[in-house]
Design brief:
Distance between the termini: 50 Å
Helix content: over 70%
Number of helices: 6
Radius of gyration: 23 Å
CATH topology of the largest domain: Arc Repressor Mutant, subunit A
Shape: elongated
Strand content: under 5%
Number of strands: 2
CATH class of the largest domain: Mainly Alpha
Largest sheet: 2 strands, antiparallel
Oligomer: single chain
Number of domains: 3
CATH architecture of the largest domain: Orthogonal Bundle
CATH superfamily of the largest domain: Winged helix-like DNA-binding domain superfamily/Winged helix DNA-binding domain
Structural class: mainly alpha
């Protein structure tokens, strides 16, 4: 290959590296912006319910776990929202006082408590999140299963990297 041909190849490789770096920067910015929007949505949901943001995220965790058939104990919830047992007790007390959760002793060991979202909390969540869930479903419907598999794999890898950093 001539020097001129090699120089042209080098320039093409450099442009390809620059384009890849620019795309990585755009993807990182979109992820950051999505995280900020997600947090703002959570804040607005908390405002709508008249509760703290942490309480709103805890309520969403309670409802999600319940919908998956694996309701949470306060200790399990504390691990998901990273609160001490004392802070978790205060949080659950607040949610219970607002009428958003119930503590149920359904185990043979009556000391074990399970948390359930009450009907009113579920109604408010459906009313609030329903439109965004519908828009997300429409967006997801534009992609093939193979494309969504790539996105899912990417997001799982990004989450694993974040979780590793968080320790």
């Amino acid at each position: 290959m001539t020097r001129r041909g090699q120089a042209g190849d080098d320039r093409m490789e450099e442009r390809a590296r620059e384009a890849a770096m620019a795309q990585h920067t755009r993807l990182a910015e979109e992820l950051r912006a999505y995280g900020a929007s997600f947090n703002e949505l959570g804040r607005r949901f908390a405002d709508r319910l008249g509760i703290h943001l942490t309480d709103a995220f805890a309520l969403m965790e309670i409802a999600k776990a319940e919908s998956e058939g694996a309701p949470l104990s306060p200790a399990q919830l504390g691990k998901r929202v990273a609160l001490s047992s004392g802070a978790m007790t205060a949080l659950v007390n607040r949610l219970e006082e607002h009428g958003y959760v119930s503590r149920v002793r359904e185990h043979a060991d009556r000391r074990v408590v399970t948390l359930y979202a009450r009907a009113r909390a579920k109604e408010l969540a459906e009313e609030f999140f329903g439109p965004i869930v519908q828009r997300q479903e429409q967006l997801l419907g534009r992609y093939t299963q193979e494309q969504l598999h790539h996105v899912e794999t990417f997001l799982a890898g990004m989450r694993a990297a974040m979780d590793e950093q968080l320790g």
